[in-house]
## 1
Amino acid sequence: MAREKCLIKKEDKVKVITGKDSGKIGKILKIDNKTKRIVVEKINLVKKHMKPNAQNRQGGIIEKEAPIHRSNIMLMCNKCMTPVRIKMQILDDGKKIRMCSKCNEPIDA
């Protein structure tokens, strides 16, 4: 079984397209390619009950980001500021870069 490639990387700006947080924009914090889930900053916040421990002396209810499926987000283009699909382009020196499919601008700096 071949694994499909994820063209989204850590620190990319993405927009949620479905679910309770649809329309929100955030930065990718963590990617899990095995389960195809992504943790996005300030998206899909859940409340977690914590016991007091060394890091959290008081305990109580904390809010943290839960992972969402990668099919529910789209990468934001830096130039046209819209959610876009990604296409790959091979440069003359053989290097692959990600391109915006709408405005043909390179996404990688």
Note: The chain has no helices and ten strands.
## 2
Amino acid sequence: MTAKRLIYLVDDDDAVRRSAGFMLKTSGFEVEVFASGPEFLRRIKQAEPGCILLDVRMPGMDGLEVQRELNTLGIAMPVIVLTGHGDVGVAVTAMKAGALDFIEKPFEKAVLLSALEEGFAQIERSDRTQSRASEATMRLKALTARENDVLLGLVRGHANKTIAYDLGISPRTVEIYRANLMTKLGVTSLSEALRIAFAAGLGDVSANIRHG
């Protein structure tokens, strides 16, 4: 879970930055304001996780261009797009590119806060997922190379005999490796072992298995 609720407000309108920034700060958020897309992008590369309030209509580099650059950089923070009246088509484009929501100006406080709550909930879900992935990866490090090979076979849905054939060992040896890896992972069922493997990303591995 994020330690603080940080918001990046990107809008070329000084009045919006002042009024929205003040409202958000008095609502308990920490706010960083930016007058342009390039200024924001220079900061965001080293920024802590937070929600991004991004104006669409900005001179030079508009909000959609900023959003594309965020995607290119692999920055997956929740983006809430701020649009003017009649910019629904632009808002739809932004949401197709991954924006969480869009809000028309002038926006109501309750509408904005509701969107931000969903944004921070998304960050917390992502944090929990990353935490589970890190824990699972650490647990898998306890396995030997051959135990890992057997686990990969199980992830692919293979029976012990198939795994044994692929690895050039006996089914009995596969059973021993399987029992050992489950002990090391601290699980008592195959489903528990698979959940750990999937959390660590083993479901995305290539079909190559070491032989020998």
Note: Residues 205-212 have pLDDT under 50 and may be disordered.
## 3
Amino acid sequence: MSRRTERVEALIQIELAELLLKKLKDPRIGFVTVTGVGVTPDLKSARVYFSVLGDAKAKAEAQDGLEHAAGFLQHQIADALKLRFTPKLTFHLDESVEEGLRIDRIIGNLHQKKE
């Protein structure tokens, strides 16, 4: 991966986090955290990974809200980053945070039983 691609990924992640916090007013998008961005080498598309606090319904609603706002977010990123091509955004739920918490609870329970 080139340094430019990495830099664009980081800039998109920062800009998206800022937009979700300050400009997006969709109630479906509650406690969404952008956990990562992966951009193709040609910078034509970007996979945005996000996590959500809540149940399956909250996650599905957040996914719908993000997909609905993709055009707006892409336009805002284009204005902010001044790229020749703005990557097409696709949103993917990142469940690694919850999986890590689940594993941590299991390990904690094993330590308690051992004592």
Note: The beta strands are 32-39, 45-52, 88-93.
## 4
Amino acid sequence: MDVLRDRLGGTLMLSKCTGRMQWPNRGVYFFFDESERRSDSGGGMRVIRVGTHALSSRSRTSLWRRLAQHAGSRASGGGNHRGSIFRLLVGEAMKTREGSEEPRSWGDGGHPAAAAERYGLTTVGVRERERALEAKVSEYIRVLPFLFVAVEDEPGPASLRGVIERNSIALLSNYQRGALDPASSTWLGTQSGRDRVRMSGLWNNNHVNEEYEPAYLDLLERVCLSTHPVQSLH
């Protein structure tokens, strides 16, 4: 991560990023938290979320589009947690921290219309009830520092991006093992109702219970050294 940060000229924040930057089409991203520090493996911030995109053969989602889904709308401050598991997990933990059951529709259904039918509301009504929490999630995610590696391979089950994502999560996870660089007691993820988030120390639900393959580190090093900073387009 130190090498990658140097390659990119420092960490980025979604609050300062736009689609008018020269993003690679595809890649893997790593989110950090200023309040979460490495305590065993060295210094600096610890990774709290690893992700990628376009792993299914038919997907055409770009790296920036995926990051923008996590960030939410710059104009409204809201977002769509049904299109971002990162947002969904953060919102769940916020509800728990605040001791609130509302909005009950959070995470219910793949579309607000499905939740509307369940709760006897209109689709607009569901969105209105979820709006405040969506905004809080956006505020949280948009100021998290992050890095990315460019991996311009085709979507599919054999994607190198999938290899990097899966192994990075497995390496960083503390789920059901001796903790290395554990989450602090104040990390929002400790309020998650999901054991895999709470115990892993990551905003990830998949791959936290797996073992990493040491050989993947050579691949990660190679793509880190080939990644370049993003610059604004004018």
Note: Residues 123-142 form the longest helix (20 residues).
